[in-house]
């Protein structure tokens, strides 16, 4: 089988690339505007070229020059999601320039002409609108059609693909080939937190534990937020169940997914535990400050989810890996 080449736009720390590499693809290039994220990508994907640049200023000609004669079979990427986040729904700004990044993704696709593209984002993108009132997802699908790609999307939960975390994301897949688009359906049994994922209490540095004052403040904040219907509330992980979603803002207080031993002993997850919950390989290296590492992990696409998607790109309905047959899966053809 010929190895297929991939370029990763908005590559971040390289979670999606890690999944595609595990599925047998070759990563040629990663592009990201954040040098700290790109450094982690480059460290873990030494076979790929790494370019630190705003995608808006990147041309197809520049990418082709970087790759030489190498053919690009797949373009992948996860454009910035802050403008689409459900958690920030009340603060959404249709004029947020980040809302145009999916179109920038397709601009590169149009120039490179890969056989496939895979674009990941938060579920909030399905209801997000541009300044002219057009739904972001509708413009994405229509633009893909105009440049010669049929496309579909699904809402996938990473916990159905071996990731012990309830993490729902929208995945758009497009192709210019005369082949069916096959999404992985995953497993009926969701992956869960096990004792192997959480470190033993005696091994955890005290800096990860909350003080009594902070615990009291959390209780007060939770009560106030419930009354106002605002913000995230602290949530506790349970062994035997999927973790709550690990967000990029986890470094702030870890409220989204905490470990509680008793009412007086509560802590946030360590960086190592967060990486495990996201499904990163044990030898994956995250560079930067503690805050930066949490952000990189929380912003990443879980590698096992990316690998499941990658395995089906060139599959046929007969030999696809867990080809999706669920009538409950969201779908739009274009």
Coarse shape: globular
How many discrete structural domains?
A: 2
Order of helices and strands: EHEHEHEHEHEEHHEEHHH
Whole-number average pLDDT?
A: 90
Could you please say which CATH topology of the largest domain applies here?
Rossmann fold
User: What portion of the residues fall into strands of 2 or more residues?
Assistant: 15-25%
Structural class: alpha/beta
Strand order of the largest sheet: 3-2-1-4-5-7-6
Report the biggest beta sheet as strand number plus sense, adding barrel if it closes: 7 strands, mixed
CATH architecture of the largest domain: 3-Layer(aba) Sandwich
Helicity range of the residues? 25-40%
Count of discrete alpha- or pi-helical segments spanning 4 or more residues: 10
Radius of gyration: 20 Å
> What is the highest CATH level, the class of the largest domain?
Alpha Beta
Q: Unreliable stretches, pLDDT < 50, 5 or more residues?
A: 323-334
Ends apart, CA distance between termini? 29 Å
Write down the oligomeric state: single chain
- The CATH superfamily of the largest domain turns out to be Vaccinia Virus protein VP39
Overall strand count: 9
């Amino acid at each position: 089988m010929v190895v297929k080449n991939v370029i990763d736009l908005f590559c971040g720390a390289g979670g999606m690339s890690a999944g595609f590499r595990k599925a047998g693809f070759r990563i040629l290039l990663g592009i990201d505007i954040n040098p700290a994220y790109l450094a982690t990508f480059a460290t873990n994907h030494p076979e790929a070229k790494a370019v630190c640049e705003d995608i808006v200023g990147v041309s197809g000609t520049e990418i082709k020059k970087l790759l030489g004669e190498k053919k690009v079979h797949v373009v992948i990427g996860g454009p910035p999601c802050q403008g689409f986040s459900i958690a920030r729904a009340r603060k959404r700004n249709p004029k947020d320039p980040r809302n145009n990044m999916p179109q920038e993704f397709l601009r590169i696709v149009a120039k490179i002409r890969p056989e496939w593209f895979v674009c990941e984002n938060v579920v909030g993108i399905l209801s997000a609108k541009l300044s002219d009132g057009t739904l972001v997802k509708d413009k994405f699908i229509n633009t893909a059609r105009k440049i010669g790609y049929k496309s579909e999307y699904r809402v996938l939960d990473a916990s159905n693909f071996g990731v012990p975390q309830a993490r729902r994301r929208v995945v758009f897949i497009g192709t210019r080939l005369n082949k069916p688009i096959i999404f992985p359906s995953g497993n009926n049994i969701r992956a869960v937190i096990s004792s192997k994922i959480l470190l033993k209490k005696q091994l955890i540095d005290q800096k990860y534990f909350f003080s009594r004052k902070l615990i009291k403040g959390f209780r007060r904040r939770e009560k106030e937020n419930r009354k106002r219907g605002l913000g995230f509330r602290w949530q506790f992980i349970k062994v035997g169940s999927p973790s709550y979603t690990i967000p990029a803002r986890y470094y702030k207080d870890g409220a989204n997914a905490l470990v509680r031993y008793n009412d007086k002993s509560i802590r946030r997850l360590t960086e190592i535990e967060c990486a495990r919950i996201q499904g990163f390989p044990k030898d994956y290296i995250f560079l930067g400050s503690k805050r930066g590492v949490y952000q990189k992990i929380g912003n990443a696409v879980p590698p096992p989810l990316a690998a499941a998607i990658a395995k089906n790109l060139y599959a046929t309905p007969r030999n696809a890996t867990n080809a999706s047959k669920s009538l409950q899966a969201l779908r739009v053809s274009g």
